[in-house]
Q: What sequence folds into this?
């Protein structure tokens, strides 16, 4: 009994204290900072585990809270177009409690942004869910003291970054952890597709809203993602034919998959890809040996398949999109040839 009391009163070692703090959720860590001043220093050195982070050039969001940085008008005339040079209003929206709070600060946009960034994004910080990058303050791009900072992110979303912006923030991403990337591309961001970490990430979602951001067929062919998901209304039938032919001739790995989302009124323009593959690439309608593959899919017409050597084949078909009822997806995937498997087993 006396030994148990001694154990309870014995203070934690430095390493044990760090382990305890790192295991706490964000809100508890912040409460520790407010209520236990003696732990603020060690707490400030340890990385967080955050949920769904959004970084913008004038805002920051994580764990159900959003900070928005805005300029302020002169108080004597709120309708005035004249702004106070240094004063900023930071509005914090708490989506969990449905409350908001406003603070007036005599700081620049960059100073406030850095304060938020440095508070939550530390070396070793883990982002569960996704990290969304939608702009970086101009002055932040010239900051040099964050080169050793690495955060662990599995899912990265980007909105039309140019190459310079991309290279600024990708250096803080732990590429050994990164698996899935989603990017809205524009004219100034196409060079990102040639970056090694983009070409080889597990799943790449390429979103294009106009012709200015349309990748070339060569760029698409150079990608080696396990799943390439392409959403664009401007891909031509000829481009798709070249892309399919490249997949066949380059011998993609088993499980490699391509999805192209298109609108229903365009189907008449792209369905000929299946007939073209039959005529020029030796494709045939998928046989009963692939029933297992199609058993959980709602497809249009019949799927087709092209042999890719002795042990694999490329399956192609159209299916209804899971997102909306008016979109279709062209799918192709490299699958194991069950006929070849049967021969091997004998």
A:
């Amino acid at each position: 009994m006396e030994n148990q009391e001694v154990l309870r009163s014995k203070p934690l070692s430095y390493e044990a204290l760090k382990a305890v703090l790192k295991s706490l959720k964000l809100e508890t860590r912040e409460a520790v900072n407010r209520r236990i001043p003696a732990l603020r220093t060690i707490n400030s050195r340890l990385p967080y585990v955050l949920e769904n982070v959004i970084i913008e050039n004038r805002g920051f969001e994580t764990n159900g809270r959003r900070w928005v940085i805005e300029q302020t008008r002169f108080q004597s005339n709120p309708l005035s177009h004249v702004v106070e040079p240094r004063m900023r209003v930071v509005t914090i929206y708490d989506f969990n409690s449905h409350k908001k709070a406003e603070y007036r600060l005599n700081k620049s946009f960059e100073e406030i942004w850095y304060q938020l960034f440095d508070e939550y994004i530390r070396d070793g910080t883990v982002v569960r869910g996704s990290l969304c990058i939608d702009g970086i303050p101009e002055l932040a791009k010239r900051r040099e003291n964050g080169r050793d900072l690495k955060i662990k992110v599995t899912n990265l979303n980007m909105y039309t970054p140019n190459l310079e912006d991309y290279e600024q923030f990708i250096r803080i991403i732990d590429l050994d952890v990164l698996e899935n990337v989603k990017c809205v591309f524009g004219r100034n961001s196409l060079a990102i597709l040639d970056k090694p970490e983009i070409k080889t990430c597990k799943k790449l979602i390429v979103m294009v809203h106009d012709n200015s951001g349309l990748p070339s067929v060569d760029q698409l062919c150079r990608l080696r993602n396990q799943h390439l998901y392409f959403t664009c209304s401007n891909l031509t039938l000829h481009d798709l034919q070249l892309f399919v032919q490249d997949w066949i001739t380059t011998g993609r790995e088993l499980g490699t998959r391509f999805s192209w989302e298109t609108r229903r009124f365009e189907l008449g323009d792209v369905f000929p890809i299946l007939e073209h593959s039959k005529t020029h690439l030796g494709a045939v309608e998928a046989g009963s040996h692939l029933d297992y593959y199609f058993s959980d899919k709602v497809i249009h017409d019949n799927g087709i398949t092209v042999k890719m050597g002795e042990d694999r084949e490329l399956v192609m078909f159209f299916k209804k999109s899971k997102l909306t009822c008016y979109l279709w997806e062209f799918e192709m995937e490299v699958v194991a040839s069950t006929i070849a498997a049967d021969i091997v087993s004998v």
